[in-house]
Design brief:
With about 375 residues, this protein is of the alpha+beta class. About 40% of the residues lie in helices and about 25% in strands. It folds into three domains: about 120 residues, eRF1 domain 1 (Translation, Eukaryotic Peptide Chain Release Factor Subunit 1, Chain A), CATH 3.30.960.10; about 140 residues, eRF1 domain 2 (Nucleotidyltransferase, domain 5), CATH 3.30.420; about 100 residues, 2-Layer Sandwich (60s Ribosomal Protein L30, Chain: A), CATH 3.30.1330. It binds zinc ion.
Length: about 375
């Protein structure tokens, strides 16, 4: 599974005099009307790309193309819906990711792994922690717009209540049973809180949806600390034993609504702070400038936009297209086609957050890229 940790690793490659082949495929059977249409795409795209390269470069990447070809021929049975492969045999580098959502078919050969679609996948399709609570039990699921997975069932230890010696429930026994029930519930909530914190830390899942009857949801929500309460983006009522598929159906509108709200909020933040204030910058030139200074806190990039630019062969600085030498070290510069991707990688290297936006005409007009600054 593609994770935040992996992405950070991919983004850490320096631009070197070596070539990476990055392949993204839509292997979803629903989108491939003829069987293995994605394989035909790969064959054609690799022929096209290779034919545009110099003889030297072609010789360098042919072994990677062959490796991928060999892998694809074996794989058609085990595929999910999306497939990403990164290969550089001279660096002994080979990574394969299967994803639950399809990619747009794309073959890119550059000096570093092309990660924009993968970053978009992780950020666009935010994952949600879905908690179904009932008394001292809870089910935990992870969902995004398209799939849901049941993780584990958390059941708190709940000892059988003691009966008194006659075998009858005395008043005392009833009170004790109530107390034990309460304790079991508290224990459960504590376990869930620990679990939520772990999911945030490891996988960056920050959004929570709570399901159950109204009273169970209320009891549970009351026990959450404020920091976690703020992460709850919605609640829903569903039978405790509902199937994951049914749960996803109820959660989907909640997730869509949350995505929309977060996207609006992001853009307001970007544009209200921009234009005069020093909280944000908009447009390629200013963003790259701030990136060079390590001053990006959060980068916003339009998905599906391709912008070209320059990269310095000497210091790795990124600039918009220019004729002159590197403004930072006077080194020679070369043109790259996927500038936004390089900006994303650099931002990830600086521990900035990335947000890929889908619908933002204002940002498209401004060049497809903007950022919130650290200082
Ligand atoms: Zn330079």
């Amino acid at each position: 599974m593609l994770t935040k940790l992996e992405l950070k690793e991919l983004a850490s490659f320096m631009l070197q005099d070596t070539l990476y082949v990055s392949l993204y495929l839509d292997v979803d059977p629903k989108n491939n009307l003829k069987k293995d249409e994605w394989y035909k795409y790969f064959k054609k795209a690799s022929r096209d790309v290779l034919s545009r390269m110099t003889d030297d470069d072609r010789l360098r990447v042919q072994p990677d193309i062959d490796l991928i070809d060999k892998y694809l021929k074996k794989q058609s049975e085990t595929l999910q819906r999306g497939l990403a492969i990164f290969s550089n045999h001279t660096m002994d580098f080979w990574k394969v990711y299967h994803t639950a959502l399809p990619f747009t078919n794309q073959l890119v050969i550059e000096h570093d792994p092309y990660i924009k679609p993968a970053a978009a996948m992780l950020d666009l399709y935010q994952r949600y922690l879905v908690l179904l609570v009932r008394g001292s039990r809870a089910r935990v699921l992870i969902a995004d717009l398209g799939q849901i997975e049941e993780l584990s069932i958390v059941i708190s230890p709940r000892p059988e209540p003691d009966k008194d010696r006659d075998g009858n429930w005395g008043d005392f026994g009833k009170i004790r049973a109530e107390k034990q029930k309460e304790q079991a519930q508290k224990q459960l909530y504590k376990e869930i809180r620990t679990f939520i914190e772990k999911m945030q830390r490891v996988e960056g899942i920050k959004r929570i949806i709570i399901g159950g009857t109204e009273s169970h949801r209320r009891t549970f929500a009351e026990t959450l600390p404020d920091a976690l309460k703020n992460r709850v983006v919605g609640e829903f009522a569903v039978e405790y034993n509902a199937s994951p598929k049914e749960i996803l159906k109820v959660c989907t509108p909640i997730m869509k609504d949350a995505e929309y709200r977060f996207e609006r909020k992001a853009l307001d933040e970007l544009f209200n702070q921009g234009g005069g204030g020093d909280g944000s910058v908009i447009g390629l030139s200013d963003v790259l400038d701030q990136l060079q200074q390590g001053n990006i806190r959060k980068l916003y990039v339009m998905q599906n936009m391709v912008v070209s630019g320059m990269v310095c062969n000497n210091c790795g600085a990124l600039t918009p297209e220019r004729e002159r030498k590197c403004p930072y070290c006077d080194g020679d510069m070369r043109k790259v086609n996927h500038m936004l991707d390089l900006a994303i990688q650099k931002a990830i290297d600086q521990d900035a957050r990335i947000d890929m936006l889908e619908e933002a005409p204002r940002l498209v007009k401004a060049g497809g890229i903007g950022a919130l600054l650290r200082y």
